[in-house]
Here is the input.
Amino acid sequence: MEPASRLDNNHELSLRDFPYIIRWRDERCKRCGRCTAVCPMFSIEPSVIVQRILHSEGGMPEPKAVRRVVTIIKQSTDIGRYCTGCAACTLVCPNEAIEPEYNSRNKFPFHKNKGGHPYRRGGRRNDPRPSTLDRLRFTRISMLTDPALDAGRHEFRIRTYLGRILPAEELPLKIINGKLDVDKKSGKFIPPVREIYPVMIGSMSIGALSPNMWEGLAMGVTYLNEVENMPVVMCSGEGGMPQRLLKSRFIKYFIPQIASGYFGWDEIVRALPHMVEDPCAIEIKYGQGAKPGDGGLLMAHKVLKLISEIRGVPMGVDLPSPPTHQTKYSIEEAVAKMIQSMSMAWGFRVPVYPKISGSRTAKAVLNNLVRNPFAAALSIDGDDGGTGAAYNVSMDSMGHPIASNIRECYLDLVAQGKQNELLLIAAGGAGKKGNLAANAAALFMLGASAVSIGKYIMQAAAGCFGDEYNRCNVCNIGRCPRGITTQDPRLYRRLDPDVVAERVVEVFKSIDVELKKIFAPMGRSTELPIGMSDGISADDPAVAERLKISYVC
Amino acid sequence: MKKKVTLKGIVKGRRLSSRVLEEEIQEVVGKGARNIHVLADGQHGIGGRIWPGGETVKITVEGPVGQRLGSMGMFGTEIVVKGSASDDAGWINCGADITVLGDVTDGAHNAAAQGKLYVQGGGGARCDTMTKHNPKFDPPQSWYFRDVGDTFAEFKAGGIAVVCGVNPRNPENILGYRPCVGMVAGVVYFRGPIKGYSETDVKLLDLTDQDWKWLIVNMKPYLKAIKRPERYKELSRSIKDWKKLVPFTAQERAKKKDFKMSIAEFRSGIWEKSVGKGGIFGEYLTHPLTILPYVTTGDDRRFRPVWNNYKYAPPCEYACPTGIPSQKRAQLIRADKLHEALELVLQYSPLPASVCGEICPNLCMQACTRGRVDRAYNIKEMGSASLEIKAPKPQKKTSRKAAVIGGGPGGLSVAWQLALKGHDVDLYEAEGKLGGKLELCIPRERLPQKVLRKEIDRFKEIGINVHLNTKVHRKKFDLIYKSHDVVVVACGAHRPRIMNVPGSKDMVPAYDFLKGINTGDAPDLKGRSVVVIGAGNVGMDVAAEAYHCGAKEVTAVDIQEPAAFGKELEIAESLGTKIVWPMFAEKYEKKNGKIYFTDGTSLKADLVVISIGDMPMTEFLPPSVHTDKNGWIQADDAGHTSNPRVYAIGDATRLGLVTHAIGHGRTAADAVHALLSGRSYNMPPPKPVAPYEKIKTAYYDVCKGEPFAPVEEANRCMSCAVCRDCHMCETVCYNGAITRKGYEDGSYEYMVDSDLCIGCGFCAGICPCGVWEMEDNI
Here is the structure.
C-alpha cells in the first residue's frame, strides 16, 4: 500500500516552489491536447476536477447543488517533472490559452537533488545581469580627427589570421630574380596561417547537437564561404565528424577538435588519405568555460547508430570525456606533445591550438605557448559559455569571466612584444544579451584576434529557448523541444537544417554590417582593431582599472 | 551698364583675398555689370551666388581657378573657365551654366541641384556625388568629355551625368573605381569601357529611344560650349555605343532577395553535390529526411495511449489475501447480473458470509480507493449477501485423489477448490465439527453460529469426503499419504506458546479457553478478575468472552504496543477491557489470585489466560516434510514443502488471518491441480496494485451513509484499473482517435486510430479507472 504521505500534501511541493508556473486559461482552452502532447517534461497533463456550485434562487434559502466534473490542464508538483518554462505549450496552443510564467521566488535549488544527485542541466550560467562586455562602450569616435569612414560606402576587410605569425626578421626570405620570396631551402619551419573571419562558430559536438542542428550550422558556414566569400569557420566539438564532410572540399572551413575522450579520432585518422583539403585548424580542448575542470558525458540513450558510427563506439554506452587528458603530466609535456602530434597528422600544414577554460592560470599556459613555435593560438573560454550538460554548481559557480582574462593575456603578450605572433581566441559569453557584434568588437579591442560563439548561434539560428532565468536548459536529457540537443528523430526532425543554415548566413551577414558600423566611426577599415583599447571605455571605474581602459560617465 | 568689366585677382602684385574679390564681383553685378571677366588667382567660389534678377550674367574666368567655382550658382549665371577648374566646381549648383574648357578636379558638381556643368576634359575623383533633382526644376546636367575618377556619382539622388569617353586617361575604365555607391536617383550615360559599379545600388542598361533622343539633343549645345562641335557625329554615331547606369527603384530594392542563392539551391547545387545526397549524415540516418511538426501522429508521436484494462490489480483485490476480485462483483451488478456477482465469490472462498461478512478485518476495504472519497465500497456486506447462494457445480471428476488434513479455514479452502476442480478429496478433521478456529475459538458474538453452519453445509454439498473426529498421527498420515496422490496439511496451530515464569502452568491457554466456551464448556467467572497476557486480537476475543462469562474486570497486558485492531478490539474495549503495556510478567500466584510484573506492580488475577500465540503440532509428519525447530512447516506461497507430494498451508506454516489461510489454500489448490494434471506450476506474479493517483475521484460525489443495497454499492465502486465502459475517453478525444469495439461474446475493447492520435494523454488523464496509460511510442 502507498504511504500516507503520497495521499496527502505532506512533503508535497507547492507550485509556488517551482521556477515556472503554468498560466492556463480555462475559458480559452478547447482541450485539443496539443500542449500536453509536446511538453518535454510532462509537467502538464490533462486531468479532471469537480466543481460544486450551490444555488439558491428563490426568495428564501432553497439550496440546490450543481455538480460538474470538468477537464483541465494540470501542472505537476513532482520535482522530476518541473516546468522548465520552455513554452513549447504556448508555441503550439491555437488559442493562446497556456503560458508558463517565471516565478522569481521559487525554491527550486533547495529541492532539485533527488536521490542525492545534484542538479545537472544544460545551458548557461543562470546570471541574467549584463556581462562586463555589455558595459563597454566604443567611445573613440572619429570626429574630424581621423578620416571618417562610412560603413555603407567604404570597403572593409574584416579578417583575422589563425596561425603563428613569425616576426619579419625570422622569416626566411631572400631575393630571387629580383623578387622577395620564401627561401624554401633554409630548412626553417614556416607555420601555416589561415585568413579567417574573426567571428567563428565554437565547438559543439555531434552528439551534444542533433544531426539536423549540426548540419544546419555546417551548411551555413559553407554557404558563407562559398557564396558570400566570408571565410567563417566552425569547430567540430569533440565527437568526430562525418566521413562525407571529412572527405569533401568543405573540410577546409572546419576545425576538428580533439578532447580528452578522443572520440571519433580513429575515424578521422583513417579518413586522412582520402581528404582532398586540409582542415582549417585543429583545436585541442583542455577545458570549457561553462564547466571548468569538469568533463563531459554523452548519455547512453543518445548513443544511437549515428553517434556510434561517427564516434567509432558501440551503441547504447555512456561516453565520458574525463576532466583532464590522460597520459599527460605537465603543461610543458601536455601541450607540446599534443600540438606535435596533431601538427604531424597533417604534415605540419595545419595550425594547431589549445582551448582552455578561462582561469587565473591562463597566463601560465600562454607563456608556455609563446615558447612553442608550433602553437598557433590560445583559445580561452569564459564562464558565460554554454554547455550541453554539466552540474549546476559547475555552471553557476565555477570559472573566470572572459573580459579580464583575455585582457591580461593580451597585455602579457604585449609586454613580450609577441602580440602579433600568437593569436588569442575569446569565447564564452559573446552575445550574451544579443549584442554579438558589440561584444566581439570589444573583445578585439581588449586583445582577442578572434571570437568564438556557440550559445549565441543556437539561440539565433535555431531559436533555442534557454535563457539565464533557467528557462528550458534541459539540453542534457535528450528532450530538447527545439530539436537542437537531442538524438531523438521525433524531436530533431522539428528542426530544418536549411532554416538553421539560412539563419547562420543572416546572422553573419548582419554582424558583418554591425562590425562595420562600429569600426567605421572609429576609423578602422583594413585591419581588425586588435588591442585598440583606447577605443573602448567602461562605465565602471573598477572595470576600467582592471581592464586598463578609460572610464567614462 | 552692359559694358564688360574686368576684375583682377592680383592687383599691383598683391593677390586679393577670396572675400575681397567676391565683394567686388557682387558690387559690379549690383551696379549692372552683365559681362564680367575675372583674371583669377586661386580665389574661392568665383561666380557663385549671383542674383541677376531674370537677366543673364556672363562670367569668364581665366588664370588659376580656386575651389568651388560657381558654387551655389544661380539661374542666369553663365560661367566659362578658360582652362581647368579646381575641386568642387559647381558645388550646390542652383542653376548656373558652368563650362570648363579644361579638366575639373575632385568633387565636381557635388550636390548640384540645377544647372549644367560642361567639362571639356575629364573629372577627378568623387565627381557628381550627392546631386539632386528638385521636381520644380529641370535636373542638373554634368557633362564630361573624357572620363571621370574613382567613386563617381556616389549617393546620386537625381540629375544626369554624361561621360563621353573621348580619349580617356584610363582607356580600360572611364568611370573609375566603384561608381554609383548609394545612388538612388538620376542617370549616368557613358560611352566606353568600365570596370564594375555598385551592383547593390544600380543596374547597367542599354539606352532607350527616349534616352537617346535626350542625349543627342542635349549633346549639341554641350559640344558647342566646349568647342568640340565636330565630335557630334562620332558621339551620336550609334545608340549602341552608349550605356547607362540607373539606380534600382525603392520598389525594386524592397523586392530584392537578401540571398544571392537560396539555401535550397545551395543544398542541391553545392552542398549535396560535394557531400552526397541526404547531406553529411545521410549515410547514417534511417528515417525520412523530412521535417516534422511539433504535433505529430502515428509513429512520429512521442507517446501513445494504451488501453491497459486490468493491467493493475484493483487495491481491494490486491489487498485481499484470498484474492477476491471485488470490483468484478460490482461490475456484474452494474451489468444487471446480481446473481452472478454473488456467485462469483464462491469461486474464491467457501466462506464469504462467515469470513468477509463477519470476522475478516476486510483489508480490501481498508485499501479501497473509495475510502478516500467517503467510505470504502462495502465488501463486507457483499460477502454476507452471498450466504444464501447455492454451491457451484464442480467440474468433471478427474479420479485423482487428494487428502486434506485439517478442517479449519485453510483446509476448507483447499478442499473446496480441489473438489471444484473435479478431484476426489478426503478431508480429515480431529474435532467433531468442521470450521477449525472459526468453530472453536471465534466468539459466537462475532461469528453467528447459523451463518457458519449454513456455509459449512454448503461446503459439504459439493461432495467432499469429510472424516470428522479423525486425529491424524504418524501412522495415519502414512496411510493417507499412500492412498492419495497429494496430501495437503492444513492442521493449523494449536500448541499455545507459554511463558517460562513461575506459575505459568496455572495459566490457561487462550485456545483452550475459547474452545471451551464454543463447545459448551464455559467457565463461570462471575465477579472474578481476569488478566489476559498478550493483547492481540485473540487476547481481545478472550477478554470479551471472559466478560460474557461474568468476569468483573479484564485486563489485557502486553510487552509491547498491543497488536489488537478492528472489531475485536472494539468489542473488548466496549465491555471494559483495560489494556496495559509494557508489562513483563514475573510470576503468577494462583493461590493469592495475583500476577506480578517485573516493574514491581501486580494485578488481581483469579484467572490468567495466556494469549501470546500458538505453534503448530506437526509431529505426525514424516521427516521428508521439513519443519523448523518450533514445528512450523517450511512451505512456500503455493504450499510446496520439501516433499513434492505434500503441501502445507495456513497457520501450520505461518500465523495469519483467516483470509490468509483461505488464500493460501486457494493458491495451493492451483499448485496441486497443476501437479495432478501433470503440468508444472508457476505461481503467476502478482499484478502490481493500481496506483491511487490514477483513479479519478473527482467523478464521485460524497455519499451519505445510506443502508446497504447491492446495486447502489456497486455504483459506488470506482472500478480501479478495470474499464467501466463509460465512454469518457471516446468523448474527450479531440481528434476522434478512440473508438469502442464490441464483440459477439459481449466483451469489448477501446481502440486508438494512430493516424488520428497525437499522443496528448487526455484519455489517460481523464480515465476514471486509470485504465488508459501513455507509453513510449517505440
